[in-house]
Amino acid sequence: MTTRKQIDSFFDELEESRLLMDGFDEAIIGYSQRCNERVLAVYSYEKMVEVLVSRDRIEYEEAVEYIDFNCVGAWVGDGTPIIVMPLLIIDGSE
Fold first, then answer.
1. How confident is the model at residue 46 (pLDDT cuts 50, 70, 90)?
2. At 49, is the pLDDT very low, low, confident or very high (cuts 50, 70, 90)?
3. Does some domain include residue 33?
4. Is residue 50 in some structural domain?
């Protein structure tokens, strides 16, 4: 399990400031950076849902609603973390 200390240590080695989401350390999957832009923490949407369902023992739908409103819908400046959504492709040929 990833801890906040490990995450902080990683970003410290990159010599980058970072904004992290409280309570979702287990859902961080990496970082992202574009040329000449700051490093952003990257979280898995699906793992965030899993954290709420297992840790807080809430229903799946309630976890999705919480994350959509409080995390995906949050803007905290240029360092706002990225949340990666699954790519759902519906192929009508099958």
1. very high
2. very high
3. yes
4. yes
Please count the structural domains in the chain. Answer: 1
In a domain, 91, yes or no: no
Count of CB atoms within 10 A of residue 89's CB? 5
Mean pLDDT of the chain: 88
Helices (H), 1-94: 4-14, 45-55, 60-67
22-61 residues labelled b (16+ CB within 10 A) or e (exposed):
eebbbbbeebeeeeeeebbbbbbbeebbebbeeeeeeeee
- Residue 83: burial class (beta carbons within 10 Å; 0-12, 13-18, 19+): buried
* pTM exceeding 0.85: no
